[in-house]
Amino acid sequence: MTRARVVGLARTWLGTPYHHQAALKGVGCDCLGLLRGVYAEFYGHAPEEPPPYTPSWAEDHGAETLRDAARRHLAEIPIPDAQAGDVLLFRWRERLPAKHCAILSDRDRMIHAYDGHAVLESWIPPAWSRRIAHAFRFPERPR
């Protein structure tokens, strides 16, 4: 039930234009804004407010900021156990922190936002699959 609800909420964000650091359905969001918005709709309150961040924050700082925040609010699961409604974090380069997030909508499909694209539901190509660094599940109750 939880997973289906998460996917349903994420789909209501489809078409929201990409806007760095935003989290407003229909107005603009980035990948983190999408995740924060779905979290807020699911639990009735927003997770922590992120500090301002640049598009190159992961390369600039090297800290696993996104992973650590996800651990504070979601339940970490083994990557092979991820199912629809779970959250994936992607690492673009080896030894760099994960810096992109998406919500699985099916075994090989995800809902996400990235620069130049509105929120969309797309398949997960092999090049992206190889970059999955962490997986998380929305707990029944917020953390």
Q: Can you describe this structure?
A:
With 143 residues, this protein is an alpha+beta fold. It has a single domain, classed as endopeptidase domain like (from Nostoc punctiforme) (endopeptidase fold (from Nostoc punctiforme), Alpha-Beta Complex), CATH 3.90.1720.10. 29% of the residues lie in helices and 26% in strands. The protein is built from five helices and eight strands. The protein has a six-stranded antiparallel sheet with strand order 3-8-4-5-6-7. Strands 1-2 form a two-stranded antiparallel sheet. Helix 1 packs across helix 2 (31-43). The longest helix has 13 residues, at 31-43. The radius of gyration is 14 Å and the shape is globular. It starts with a helix and ends in a 6-residue tail after the last strand. The model has no long low-confidence stretch (mean pLDDT 94).
* Number of discrete helical segments: 5
CATH topology: endopeptidase fold (from Nostoc punctiforme)
Low-confidence stretches: none
* Beta fraction: 25-35%
Helix content, binned percent: 25-40%
Molecular shape: globular
Shape-level CATH architecture: Alpha-Beta Complex
Number of domains: 1
